Amino acid sequence: MKLTPKLYTAALTLTACLALAPVAFNGVVDAYNHNQFIDLGLDKTEISVKAHYPLYKMIEYPRIKAPTVVLGDSRARALQDKYWQELGRNDVYNFAYGGATVFEIYDTFQYLKENADLETLIVSLPLRSMDARFKGGMNRVPEAISLANDPFGYYTNWFVAKTGWALLQDRYPKVFEAAEKLSLSPISQAKAGELSGLETLSVDALLDPALCDECILQTPNGTLILPAVYHGRGLGLGHWARYWPDIAIDRDLPSLFAKQVGTNGAADWRRFKQSEDLWAMVEEIAAWCDEHDVELIFFIPPTISEMQQRINDFGLAAANHKFRGRLSNLAPVVDMDFDTGFTRDLKNFTDAYHFGSNPARKIVGELLQVIDSDKAGVKTAMDRRADLACPVRPDDITQTHNEGTLQLIEGTSCRIWRQIDG
Asked: What are the UniProt keywords, alphabetically (predicted)?
């Protein structure tokens, strides 16, 4: 059958329209603010960011180019730009991603080397992220850089269009609800009964540690109590043992917290293995910062005390301590993940891993005092102090311990690990 010119032209036009549909849609909705031509009042800072953290920030950062940058996972992301701005620091950009891996931190650092004039770099680096299997070794950064630098790739990308569709659904819920009620299909929905066995396939059941085939270490049923004569030195901590006591708290946690401490805590540490490949990336970041006079600060964010105890439960107390000493060889370490009044107070946390907005403001204030002595900003930060104060001034220090060149200075719910001349 031979197509007539009119039919051929119509078919060609229809094909072109279908091909250009995502381009037009992405150009107007612009889920990640690539062009910012049209403002539809969409909640991009919530929906778009969470759909692809690196893509949003790779597009946003070139418009800001702040010289102070925060890298890390969702705990670092909680240290929002606006909290720094409240203290007079408009030159700080939070480049952290929810669920970030060290691979992503490293690739973001490589991007910053080429695209920023850095003065200060704050890297949030909890021990858990140093296992190469963490989050399956995920790395969303190369794709984000590619799309941010390729307009054609961005505007023809179906993921960007899908995110844009989610933005419209959020902005105009009644329109979409009305559209869903309209059915053009002559076939009605079939309502089948649920199979009775499906409840055994729940997420809770699949995450049950008892299903782990490769488990070697068993989770203790109770708290490990060592004879007082050992002072924890049998754990490989030596004289540092008194700074890492076992944590025994007799209380019932809220269900979410309890599940995270039990199930997630076991998943975090049962098969934990610190990666030397990831460590080499951290060393490279530190070496470049030292060579280019960029101030580098490592930050270990707080978790609730019961979650900290899970590290001890799986025999990793010494590794947890040595990680801080090793990091301090590269740069000062601001450490808030140890048993304190701050980490025992559940009001400071939204779950076992994450602190809330008011604690985030306090943490930003403490980090500001570590990197900056501006009197106005520091005064506001000090006014927020109560249960959290880093040892940045002599009056803040509650105790000090030196062993060789490693020095620990402690304030209120905050420690700084650093190297000193021996």
From this structure: Signal
User: Which pLDDT belongs to residue 199?
Assistant: 46
Whether 191 shows a pLDDT value over 70: the answer reads no
Distance CA 82, CA 177 (A): 35
Q: pTM for the full model?
A: 0.83
Give me the residue label for tokens 């909705």: 29
- 59: left (phi > 0), else alpha (psi -120 to 50), else beta? alpha
Instruction: Say what the pLDDT of residue 203 is.
Output: 53
The whole-angstrom distance between residue 77's C-alpha and the CA centroid of its chain comes to 6
* Helix (H), strand (E) at residue 420: none
* Secondary structure letter of residue 412 according to DSSP: B
Q: How is 266-283 classified by DSSP, letter by letter?
A: HHHHTT----HHHHHHHH
| Per-residue pLDDT tens digits for 239-262 | 899 999 999 999 999 999 999 999
The pair of structure tokens assigned to 206 is 């699949």
Q: What is the DSSP letter of 260?
A: I
HSE value, Cβ hemisphere, 13 Å, CA-based, for 379: 4
Question: What's at 32, amino acid-wise?
Answer: Y
